[in-house]
Design brief:
Blueprint: E1 4-5, E2 31-38, E3 42-50, H1 61-65, E4 68-70, E5 73-77, E6 83-86, H2 88-101, H3 109-122, E7 134-143, E8 155-165, E9 176-181, H4 198-213, E10 218-222, E11 230-233, E12 237-242, E13 245-249, H5 259-270, E14 275-278, H6 282-291, E15 294-301, E16 305-314, E17 317-320, H7 328-341, E18 352-354
Parallel strand pairs: 1-3, 9-10, 9-16, 13-14
Antiparallel strand pairs: 2-3, 2-8, 4-7, 5-6, 5-7, 6-18, 7-8, 10-11, 12-13, 12-15, 15-16, 16-17
This protein binds pyridoxal-5'-phosphate.
Length: about 350
């Protein structure tokens, strides 16, 4: 299938604003990608068009029953002036796993990668040039059949939009304080926690608000069954660096398999660190923070790459990790991953896709 281009004429394009101090996800570029699906034709009419609103029937399934999934990746402006994507193939595979779970049609991964490449190149003037900043890429799909019946939609729309984002760390690579909730859960076994389904995020808002009101930036989620085993932090995966082991919760079915998580595991392993994926109880974490056996804790995700955790609150007490400071391992991982993403360091794993 050929991607049709219906571009805004050069003279009518908006001047690119100064790409500084951007609030995440508020500013969008000139164009977007769209295609539609129906049972008869499959995916059809892939095209890049001017960015703008979509028309939905008020009965569209997505508005009522949240049949929607998304992805998140970034295009980086390298120190060599080349544009790079980081492991985009993994995002596409995860998107299709999400489609399966949500009874939505799979997409052609090659076509969607082609669409991402074309769209980013067309709107490349919107990629911030400083290290740390990037162009956030948001592919998403939703069921839009107008019916109030609870069933998979017969029709879908798939889109990609782009949003320039500032460096996550404007005031230095500083640790955050997190709030362990044993009141709310993010995802349960057999649920949809391991895919990027819209409803998961709606369900997480309340806990985030409660944590914020108490002065914490992120929620640490525990497992839904025992409220005992650590799962994730906010919308990031979580790592613990115990005396001689870098460990992260094993993918249990209710944990989102992060691409940054996988990259950290592979990097740390290649450095000769003992890495593991296993069950980690909140008691073990607290005991480690108190005894000093827990040297570092950090979240991982596309947005922040690495987010050091300086303290955690659990059942009315606060526990400090590494004196509330960013540790050397978090720093090393951050430098290495961003070094690869911005073309400053070699890419021995073949993680980057160079667009220009
Ligand atoms: C997207 C996401 C992550 C991180 O995934 P990356 O591929 O590393 O960006 C972790 N947890 C949740 C809940 C997420 O939605």
């Amino acid at each position: 299938m050929e991607i049709e281009l219906h571009l805004v004429p050069e003279e009518k394009r908006r001047p690119v604003p100064e790409l500084k101090n951007l609030v995440f996800g508020r500013l969008f570029t000139e164009h977007m990608f769209v295609m539609e699906y129906d049972c008869r034709r499959g995916w059809h009419s892939p095209r890049i068009v001017p960015y703008g609103p979509v028309t939905l029937d008020p009965a569209a399934i997505v508005l009522h029953y949240a049949q929607t999934i998304f992805e998140g990746l970034k295009a980086y402006w390298g120190v060599d002036g080349k544009i790079r994507l980081f492991r985009p193939w993994e995002n596409l595979k995860r998107l299709n796993r999400g489609a399966d779970r949500m009874c939505m049609p799979r997409v052609d991964e090659e076509l969607v990668l082609e669409a991402i490449k074309k769209l980013v190149l067309i709107d490349q003037a919107w990629i911030p040039r400083e290290k740390g900043a990037a162009l956030y890429i948001r592919p998403f799909m939703f069921g839009d059949e107008p019916t109030l019946g609870v069933k998979p939609s017969h029709t879908y729309t798939f889109m990609i939009i782009l949003s320039p984002v500032s460096a996550y760390y404007q005031e230095g690579f500083n640790p955050v304080k997190i709030y362990v909730t044993d009141e709310f859960v993010r995802a349960a076994p057999g649920g949809t926690g391991e895919v990027k389904a819209g409803g998961n995020y709606a369900a997480s808002l309340k806990a985030a608000e409660v944590a914020k009101a108490k002065g914490y930036t992120q929620v640490l989620w525990l497992d839904a069954v025992e409220r005992r085993y650590v799962e994730e932090v906010g919308t990031m995966n979580i790592f613990f660096y115990f005396e001689d082991e870098l460990t992260t919760p094993a993918l249990s079915g209710s944990i989102l398999p992060g691409i940054t998580r996988d990259s950290v595991l592979k990097l740390a392993h290649s450095w000769g660190l003992p890495v593991s994926e296993r069950r980690i109880s909140i008691e073990e974490v607290i005991e480690g923070a108190e005894s000093g056996r827990l040297k570092e804790c950090f979240g991982t995700g596309t947005a922040a790459v690495i987010s050091p955790v300086g303290a955690l609150a659990y059942r009315g007490r606060e526990y400090v990790i590494n004196d509330g400071k960013t540790g050397p391992l978090a720093r090393r991982l951050f430098e290495e991953l961003t070094g690869i993403q911005y073309g400053e360091r070699p890419d021995p794993f073949g993680w980057t896709l160079i667009l220009t």
